[in-house]
Design goal:
The structure is a homodimer. Chain A has helices at residues 7-20, 65-77, 87-97, 113-128, 145-150, 182-199, 225-235, 288-297, 308-323, 326-347, 376-388, 413-429; strands at 34-38, 41-44, 49-52, 106-110, 132-136, 164-167, 204-210, 239-243, 268-271, 282-286, 351-357, 360-368, 373-374, 391-392, 394-396, 402-405. Chain A is α/β, with parallel strands linked by helices.
């Protein structure tokens, strides 16, 4: 890591490394010291402004006034837990469930996507009386022990517990199946995973899947995959848990939830990051009858989960998504941006694939279009080149060669043009 | 559960039960619909005000203006994650570590006590290359799979994984050792737990202990116990993890942390509930050298953990504890309250034991002082009787016969008198 630009930052960096320790990581060769956020813009300590195409947590824009105001108003009035009655958590539950299929009719609140997935797995294991978890390769679902165990991006095969089995994420650009039958072929791997678990005497409790996989490189499953996968998982006695932490809340423009692309209704769905626009808020949504077995055995209490302030933040986020038409904005601006990037691919051979929908897009960078060899070094060069030009992105995927474009949902066509110009310049300047 | 008092609440209750499902529980025979909080007071929908002796999360008082203001100011300026530099998280880390022994020199932030304990156990397992966890009976440490597994209050022996072993919490009033050697005798159970793990081929990674156990009935270990326990755990290769979620931040008046009562320095300590006065904020504090093995294997990222708003809330809480002298207030008011309750025990034979320090007190209710038979029904009657008289408390402990007194730290001697009068009346009115 090179030295940061100012003396203040050098001190801050040294103190941070000393006090927070070596498990904390920073973005960029020269880390950014950000001090202010507004809409799609982030401002650093020396006053320079960056266009943010990275952060999906500030879903309705950094420091969106309506959300800030809702938090302030409620924090000044009451912030307590769910063992007293309060209308906020009930109103928010009703509003959120109204955006989901009828069968997904009960919601439980927590603070992080990790906690939402923990609760989903605990319920699935209780309902199925099984402990096996099938998950996709190079998945990321959170940071607790159980969720790190199934986060195959971070936990290599030799460190996975016996109850974890994997299937390839259905990637038709780089994956092992790319033909018309890919959806069915990928889903069939679930049978193999079930068989491998059975050989160890373990029954599957759940198939956990990102309905669009960010960690795999922003990969959308081929049409039909989630339906085929759900059928095979359920045939083996497992539940389908759809992790909507990344694709949910209208990001793809086409649908409010990722699973809607396939007209499948998961047994449980989990959500987090964008729900509270940065306020810690997450949820596990589940068919009511699945909860009965769980609730007979144990209650669920989460000290901060579903408190009146969190619920106020969640309600304000839904208000802004609706009042600003942000799902439609994602569709329109995202389509424009994707089309423009596709045009750039005529000039730049390094653009191997442009994929995604709405404001959840990816540029897969290659050293050669035929072989699709990942251009990992180029991707890193571009991330830093874009940063020098005032644009924040990052790489993702098993080869870290994919540029991930996932801005706040208030991103405009003008913002897209700003990115496109910087991106073209950065590509031109990149060493061949 | 009897019907709530108003039609509005009946509707709210029905909607809540339908939308949040059966795993959510409410306090009281007639649940409270709280709408406003201020200091030690909570106000319900019909305007009635209750003195809060239950809630420890609003540590510096419900809706404490300085904390609300800090949250609002920072939420309007920037709320992002720890992969950029920001001074709040570093300033807060420095401030917090300054309140801890020198050896506990590195802090990692998360959102809940569950997450803090998850991280502690992941680090302990990595460092020791072992997986066994020794924990006290009737412990509560959180709600994720791993932490529920070791939360022996909720998970009965037949459902505990093979890596969990228990020791009795050192309770000298109701426990199996009550003599002068109790501290050593209780600590010796750790050797037995290690042996039982060894018989299953499992090495111990950690002994996890509340330095004061709320779930056991607000029980303080006898002097020396934590030292003896640490020595035995370490001799077996395990780390000592002190869970300070309940006793931390000056609540006992005597010390800022529970473990300081015994002059022991844990290898890892975890904290949560009161840190952000209700804003989701938690931390795992660890000796730096223990982190190196963990960080070599994996980074740790928590989307919302340590964000600038959480850190601002944490800093404001520390400011108020200091400016208001709240640790000293806890000592003074707590000593006054405890002495007055002890005097009441001359009038009321049901008061079997009064224990605790500062604003973390317990009244152990008995049917007979000699046999110490728990007065569970009386405890429930008193909780509802106190509520009718405008005072909020609750029961705790394996027999639910202990009244837990754990108010916000701004609790005054006047507030204590209000409680004492209501308590004496409720005792007088209770059926013999």
């Amino acid at each position: 890591m090179t030295a940061p630009t100012t003396k203040v930052d050098a001190t801050l960096l040294e103190r941070r490394q000393r006090l927070l320790g070596p498990a904390y990581r920073l973005f960029y060769d020269e880390p950014l010291h950000i001090v202010r956020g507004e809409g799609v813009w982030l401002t650093v300590a020396d006053g320079r402004r960056y266009l943010d195409l990275y952060n999906n947590v500030p879903h309705v824009g950094h420091c969106r006034p309506e959300v800030v105001e809702a938090i302030c108003r409620q924090a000044a009035e009451l912030n307590t837990h769910t063992r007293y009655l309060h209308s906020n958590v009930v109103d928010y539950a009703e509003r959120l469930l109204g955006l989901l299929p009828d069968d997904l009719n009960t919601v439980m609140f927590s603070c992080t996507g990790t906690e939402a997935n923990e609760l989903a797995l605990r319920i699935a294991r209780e309902v199925t009386n099984a402990r096996g978890i099938i998950v996709t390769e190079f998945a990321y679902h959170g940071n607790s022990q159980l969720i790190a165990d199934i986060s195959t991006e971070d936990t290599p095969p030799e460190r996975r517990p016996d109850y974890v089995e994997t299937v390839p994420f259905p990637d038709c650009y780089r994956g092992i199946h790319r033909d018309e039958d890919a959806a069915e072929r990928y889903a069939a791997h679930i049978d193999d995973a079930v068989a491998r678990l059975a050989a160890r005497g373990i029954k599957p409790a759940a198939f956990v899947v990102d309905t669009i996989s960010s960690s795999s490189g922003v990969v959308e499953p081929p049409a039909g995959y989630l339906q085929f996968a759900a059928a095979r998982a359920r045939a083996a006695g497992a539940l389908l848990i759809a992790d909507e932490v990344q694709p949910g809340f209208g990001r793809t423009g086409r649908h409010f939830w990722g699973f809607e692309a396939d007209k499948v209704v998961p047994d449980i769905t989990t959500m987090g990051k964008p729900m509270g626009n940065g306020h810690p808020l997450a949820a596990t949504v589940v068919r009511r009858e699945l909860l009965d077995a769980f609730a007979k055995r144990t209650g669920y209490f989460n000290t901060f989960g579903g408190n009146p302030v969190s619920a106020a933040a969640g309600l304000a986020v839904l208000d802004v998504i609706e009042s600003d038409g942000l799902q439609k904005n994602a569709l329109q601006v995202g389509s424009y941006l994707r089309a423009k990037i596709e045009s750039l691919s005529e000039r730049f051979a390094a653009i191997g694939d442009v994929r995604g929908h709405g404001l959840f897009l990816a540029i897969d960078l290659v050293r050669d279009r035929q072989s699709r060899e990942p251009a990992t070094a180029l991707a890193r060069t571009l991330v830093n080149g874009l940063k020098e030009r005032g644009v924040l992105t990052n790489t993702i995927g098993p080869h870290a060669n994919v540029l991930k474009l996932r801005p706040p949902m208030v991103f405009s066509a003008d913002n897209a043009d700003t990115f496109l110009q910087a991106f073209a310049e950065a590509l031109e300047d990149a060493p061949a």
